[in-house]
Amino acid sequence: MQVAIDMGVAQGGAEAKLDLEELLATRLLVQGNSGSGKSHLLRRLLEQSAPWVQQCIVDPEGDFVTLADKYGHLVVDASRSESELTTIAARVRQHRVSVVLSLEGLDVEQQMRCAAAFLGGLFDADRDYWYPMLVVVDEAQLFAPAIAGEVSDEARKLSLGAMTNLMCRGRKRGLAGVIATQRLAKLAKNVAAEASNFLMGRTFLDIDMARAADLLGMERRQAEMFRDLNRGHFIALGPAMSRRPLPMVIGVARNPDLPPSPHLSPLPA
Ligand SMILES: Nc1ncnc2c1ncn2[C@@H]1O[C@H](COP(=O)(O)OP(=O)(O)O)[C@@H](O)[C@H]1O
Ligand SMILES: [Mg+2]
To answer: Could you tell me the fold of the domain covering 20-244?
Structure first.
């Protein structure tokens, strides 16, 4: 069965399609600076594919909890023990329910530990339950950082290990990683390298542009086009979307609970 997800409008006016089966086999990396429209894009992808495939969203900012209202996702508040989270994840696979792991309000170290425990539970599920599942991780550089930060080595190891398992060894177990990052240069290379589909949004820093060009096999000069992209505009590349870099505008998500863009209003007198 072939399912084409409608992502919006491609250059030239045609519908921008994403082949869901192909995506499950080949994974996706979304990159774009803060405000470029990554979370909105993920939301669109999740809404459009909800009827077709089980989903898990690792949600560091609470952008996805309202998927519960319309699409029946179970929201798991991560403020509980790691072993509990692992058990819940195993049950989620067994019962094939879609789930949002809400990490909002936890400090970074806790977010890493909880995401690792949950992803570990999905990964280690019994072979009988290896059904296909989209596993979306927003702000993936938090969970798979390229360099050691302020968090403990242990938390970083756990989290990076879980992300590496997801992206490098998840496919056999039915797990299809979809990761989004605002800074490609901050994301661990081995985690980024396993995606074969890309959606590239607005990018300013040379170092991120250079990484993007390397990943996509583009000339550095060609990657300059990422600088001029508007919010919601992405360049798609990969077997699930297009064999050549294809500019597209992401359609509106039906139920966005993303914070509205800031707008100016006069200060009180
Ligand atoms: N394709 C789009 N169509 C309409 N609004 C969008 C689109 N992409 C993003 N937005 C709006 O722009 C703002 C920033 O988008 P967001 O997805 O939160 O950016 P990011 O996750 O990259 O920081 C949000 O208010 C979102 O609703
Ligand atoms: Mg976001």
So the answer is: Rossmann fold (3.40.50)
